[in-house]
């Protein structure tokens, strides 16, 4: 058995969408608000020079929804194959951790304004990382055809 890992959010999402819907996240504008009890503005020094951030967050909405540890049809679409939870990006993951790239619009004090984050107002933010070209996947990306259909209107 692995030890329990506890995390304290570094902040929260403020503004933007209030409901977690399936599509249309591209124009979502919100702010990442750092916890002022733990951080000063210096924690965000240099973020304004970045075009994008990777945000790790906790799927806190619908926490009573059962966790998925096996396979299922994404979005309940039986015309798509049943695939394991680690072959999809659903929110009912074993640790309910979300990861998303978003565009940096500005930095003010303990706030980073972003666009294209698929998290709702009040979402606990676990970490923020810079997006650097050297960390992006190397080589050709491969994904199943159904995932393109799923993502067609996501952003």
TrEMBL record:
Domain of life here? Bacteria
Q: Which residues form the TsaA-like domain?
A: 7-140
Q: Which UniProt keywords apply?
A: S-adenosyl-L-methionine
Give the UniProt family note: Belongs to the tRNA methyltransferase O family.
Q: Which InterPro entries does the record match to this protein?
A: TrmO-like_N (IPR023370), YaeB-like (IPR040372), YaeB-like_sf (IPR036413), YaeB_N_sf (IPR036414)
Q: What is this protein called?
A: TsaA-like domain-containing protein
Query: Which PROSITE patterns does the UniProt record give?
Result: TSAA_2
Q: Does the keyword S-adenosyl-L-methionine apply?
A: yes
């Amino acid at each position: 058995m692995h030890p329990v890992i506890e995390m304290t959010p570094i902040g929260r999402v403020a503004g933007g969408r209030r409901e977690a819907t399936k599509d249309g996240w591209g124009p979502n504008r919100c702010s990442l608000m750092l916890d002022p009890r733990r951080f000063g503005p210096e924690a965000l020094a240099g973020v304004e020079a970045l075009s994008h951030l990777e945000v790790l967050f906790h799927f806190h909405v619908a926490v009573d929804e059962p966790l998925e540890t096996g396979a299922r049809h994404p979005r309940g679409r039986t015309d798509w194959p049943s695939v394991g939870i680690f072959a999809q990006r659903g929110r009912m993951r074993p640790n309910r951790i979300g990861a998303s790239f978003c565009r940096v619009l500005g930095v003010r004090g303990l706030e980073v304004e972003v666009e294209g984050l698929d998290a709702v107002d009040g979402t606990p933010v676990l970490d923020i990382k810079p997006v650097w070209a050297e960390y992006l996947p190397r080589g050709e990306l491969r994904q199943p055809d159904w995932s393109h259909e799923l993502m067609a209107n996501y952003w």
